[in-house]
Amino acid sequence: MKKTLLILFAVFSSFCLWAQSKSTGVVTLGAGMTAKLDLNNANTTATLTLTGSSDRWFALQFGSFGTGQGMANGQDMVYYNGTTLIDGHMVGVGNTPQTDTNNWTVTSNTVSGTTRTIVATRAFAGGTNDFTFSYSDTTIDFAYARCANASFVFSNHGGNRGYALNKVFNCEPPANPTANAQTFCQGATVNNLAASGGTGAEFNWYLTATGGTELSLNTVLTTGTYYVSQTISDCESNRVAVTVTVNTVNAPTASAQTFCNAATVANLQATGASGATINWYNVAAGGTALSSGTSLSTGTYYVEQTVGTCTSTRTSVSVQITVMGTPTAEDQEVCAGNGVWAIDVTISGEGFFFPVFYDTPTGGEPLDLDYVLETGTYYVSQSDGVCEGVRDAVVITVKPLPDTPTGNTTQQFETGDTIADLEITTVEGAVITWYVMQDINFILANESDMLQDGVTYYATQTIDGCESEYLAITADEVLANQAFSIKGFALYPNPVKDVITISAAESISGVNIYNLLGQEIMARQINNTTAEISVVKLPAGNYIVKATAVDGSTATVKIIKF
Fold first, then answer.
1. pTM, rounded to two decimals
2. Under 8 Å CB-to-CB from 19, ≥6 apart: which residues?
3. Helix (H) or strand (E) run with residue 169 in it
């Protein structure tokens, strides 16, 4: 029995114009035949490449079937009839296929040696009785046959027939995308990268030329090489290397800033790159740049710089606006010789503020605190060392100092005399004040302090709050020896280290010890004819010991403590 076996062939839908395409590749059939089917999803065109013996008829059936099912009625097929490719369909085993309207366009029919190669195309849909190709199909089935020799047409194929089932379509990678070297500012992401390719292409970015994981769109870019492919209809191209440069602009530097009373953004200071544009904000991110005339308030501001097209991150800057109050000073009188420090000023507000004095209402240099006042108008402001407030005027009237007291500059005294015994002449009603000199300082002394030989005492007189210059009087002791009026008085040891013993023929009521300035430094109640007094805590030096008897008589002794 003679029979013709046709190859049934199944096709996927749309094939891509760029590389939106897939192919079975060359499928080796028996009897010296091969077949390859390509699908282009872009123009929905199928391309068949069929080879067979150049001296006889051969046929290919395609579709979706199993072994033994290839000759079913209606199965689409094509065959070469010795001249061209014929479009037809099966009408049963042993019957000649029915010829259809030929929807295949032969683009090539060549012979090399004994092998004929035919290339033909048609639309996916074809025509009546044609198999409809679908790009979504994953496999295709082939059945094939050829005549046993050149004298046969559709019979006597013998063993020259067979099947090639479940031939897989593999996508054909599209052409590589196009992408140039690209430059960005810091903060750019993969989403900012640009590439061009086929219509509807999806671009895939990687860090490696092959393998690896596709980068997410929000991956932050760094300077280096990236790789891009394009995917069309689930087919991915090879990767193209793209050089990426990320320009980084450092944040400007700025320290905390303090302004007095009022300031604007124009007063703010920051250091950036040469030629950079500096912008200030009141928010750490986003927002609108503040204009130069915007008034500042105490708080945090943020500064960024732009170099070219790139902008840095922002630096936070603490800003303090110090509003200084105005001090008050009533018109007042001061004594001659006083400096501006003597002016009575009331500071306003809370905090550490101090007065600053001028002799002009505006401008000028501050007066030194020891600047000697004259009758006139002065101006005072308050400052915290950085900021200074408005000045207030104060009228100063300078009062003259009273005359210095008069008296002998050297005066004699007897042991036991006090400062009150020194003789001076003063204005009636004046307040007399006495001093002694300790190092370079005047120390207040009491009129009851005992005079000491060779010590200089200073007297002033004060009238209407003003104190005169000092009158210096040096005390000269008439009798430098010890003077005892207490009967049987004795004191020992002298010099002394720790304890002195005092005795007398009559009861002693008390003992007082003075330094050489006449200042009392120790007092003891005795009420006995003998007493021991510890001086161990006294510093080494000379002291005056004065004993007083119950009858009022006294004895004064100069001792040495070592």
1. 0.49
2. 171, 172, 173, 174, 175, 198, 232, 235, 237
3. none
